[in-house]
Amino acid sequence: MASGRAHDRATGLLALALGLIGGLWLGAATGLSAGLGVLIGGLWLSPDLDTHSNPTRRWGPLRLLWWPYRRLLSHRSLLSHSPLLGSAGRLLYLAVLLLALSWLGQPLGTPGPVALAQGAAQLWTRERPLLLAALVGLEASAWLHLLQDGDPTPPLPRPLRRARRRRRRR
User: Fold this and answer.
1) Prediction pTM value
2) In the chain, fewer beta carbons within 10 Å around the N or the C end?
3) Whole-angstrom distance, CA of residue 29 vs CA of residue 17
4) CA distance 23 to 82
């Protein structure tokens, strides 16, 4: 398992490489979007948000937002350290938090959840290629993290492991 510094160094190198390749292949804006996706995914939305880690500390006072996430998931669980599923779960968690905060802030004049959802839909329609490049970068950083930890697929939950052992014995 790699240290936090090793993860950060590798994230920076991958961001540079993916940004340059994406920029040469698909244009500067797409390359920049992919590179930023890697940096954000590796430095702030890492699979290690389920622990007290560097990515958690980088959130500063907002790290309290990740406390329920840490409580709900054990470290290296299927929901935090899985390809695609882990990144999707962290993004969904953030989206739910943002919608809940916007709902709570409506009396103070913040945009409500419906307005945020409409804005997100408009952004997706207008900037789909850039957002897809950012999502690819985000997922690439998660894969890099999992590969550095030595296992891109985490162990199955205990009940499923027991069921698999029973089937093998037969």
Assistant:
1) 0.80
2) C
3) 15
4) 28
Provide the residue type at 154 as one letter: P
Cα–Cα dist 38/78, whole Å: 21
Quote the longest CA-to-CA distance of the chain: 63
Q: Which helix (H) or strand (E) holds 3?
A: none
Q: For residues 19 and 33, give the distance between their C-alpha atoms in angstroms, rounded to a whole number.
A: 7
pLDDT in tens, 121-158: 999 999 999 999 999 999 999 999 888 877 656 566 66
Distance, in Å, from the CA atom of 160 to the CA atom of 170, rounded to the nearest integer, reads 16
Terminal C-alpha separation, the chain: 35
Tokens of 112: 């409500």
Phi-psi region of 76 (alpha: psi -120 to 50; beta: other; left: phi over 0): left
Domains in the chain: boundaries: 4-169
**Whether the Cβ atoms of residue 143 and residue 81 lie closer than 8 Å to each other:** no
Where do the DSSP E strands lie in 17-134?
none
